[in-house]
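Continuing from the previous page of notes. For each protein in this section, the sequence appears first, followed by its structure tokens. Read the first protein now.
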Amino acid sequence: MTELENIPGSGNEGRVTKKDILEYVGNRSKGGQAPSAKTQEAAASQQQSANIINVPAQVRSAEPAQMTTYSGNVEIIEMDRMRKLIAEHMVRSKHTSPHVTSFTEADVTNLVMWRDKVKKDFEKREGTKITFTPLFVEAIVKCIKKFPLINSSLDGDRIIVKKDIHIGMATALPSGNLIVPVIKNADQLNLVGLAKQVNNLADNARNGKLKADDTQGGTFTMTNVGTFGSLMGTPIINQPQVAILAVGAIKKRPVVVETPHGDSIAIRHMMYLSMSYDHRIVDGSLGATFLTAVAKELENFNADRDV
């Protein structure tokens, strides 16, 4: 009975005729079984699905991409290779590291006064300018020695604490792009050595003379958002590092100053600092403590120091 139900009917309203039975028996005797209408339909559907799933990748990719239309008066600019690499790195960093950013401010009046006092003699004697950057790097290096976990990276479930201190310094290029040359073994350089390294790397970066090794191996990065007038920023970590510190513009502001005779209002040179860090490794307590330590190093700068 089951076999009879499989015979496709050609009669009125799908009834099975004598002719249908004879054709079915004849086909079976030849080693084949006539497929039912349902079987044929299922097979056709299955083949259609297979054709969709198994379209070769090269054929699919050859299909023309749909062009996005933009309303209004626009200019379309294709990203150059460096901008594409920067974009990819920024997205990867945000996907890799859960970012947390802490903020503080520092009274850098002593540092500003010292630099104003020595910059002419420094350039005359050393043949290079003394900017704020080497002073910031010097303070960062001192604090990394106190909090070495800041100078680390993550490899799976292992924290790799770097004994060498290589400070990356974000540098803007004339093209508008950004590059991060690295001051190698910054902890082994005095202030004069840091100043020369900072200026050489910055000049080479802007003139397109950096070597591949000049941007490799950084263990911690500093960016000066104050160069462009920003008071503070929320920088993105330079992978595979775990922290990046941003310094803002130095501004004169009236602040409360504690004196032996009580509080008073004074005009001071103030600067905001911010640090983004990888919360997988650096907790808020460590991040804030390190950032505050850097601020204190800058505040306690000896204005009578010799170069």
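Done with the first. The second protein uses the same format. Note its length before scrolling.
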Amino acid sequence: MKVAVITGASQGIGNAIAKKFSENGYRVFNLSRTPAEGIESIKTDVSDRENVFDSIGEVVKRAGRIDVLVNNAGFGISGAVEDTDENAVRKIFDVNYFGTLFATQAVIPVMRENGGGTIINMSSAGAPLSLPFQSFYSCTKSAVSSLSEALRIELKPFNIKVATILPGDVKTEFTARREKNKSNSVYYGERIDKSVEKMERDEQNGMSPSVIAKIALKIAKSKNPPVYVVGGASYKLLVGLSKILPKRLVVWTIGKLYG
């Protein structure tokens, strides 16, 4: 039986992925602070490197192998760059980027010893399309995308495949868990409120997390997965256009939508 490790699988996209893999014959482990119903869970703070390495070691102890790692754990913050506290910025990088890094570093030697595996990193359509008042979330996801590209080349000789999913708007608990840094500044207050309100409406009208789960399973089964898969037809178009249109026009459009 193949073994999949998914970080942050207690809810949202991660939970949908865990269920999809389980339905398709994988033994699934959830690494998060909160247990996932019906899924083997190991309490893990992904921002704690030692904790992550211990958890990966526990998976190997129980299952003997790891075939797939899905780095999904993450959260969002909103607020103006000028007003966002340094600790809030460090926290989101600790979870979204360093959590991905630590789990990847822990699983590489396990997969190499097993003759290969697949690492799936969860980025965002908000990486190539950086959003105002969501800038630090976009920054963390851009960092994840860059890490993934390098890893894909570094790990190829070991038959470890790396792919990145860029979801668009997905209807999950992520919206309610966003940490909002309210600005008392007359320069940003109303603009932040309007921008975040629109973002949250888009998310709650977004696709089901099952769409992303299907993408993750397809990647895991692929012998040569694509570098990136964008989740959602409209976002495939937007991300594609952002690569060919003048950057000035792309930034202007994002500003009109969310600025």
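What the second structure shows: The chain has a mean pLDDT of 91. The beta strands are 3-7, 27-32, 40-43, 68-71, 77-78, 117-122, 160-167, 179-180, 228-231. We return to this in next week's lecture.
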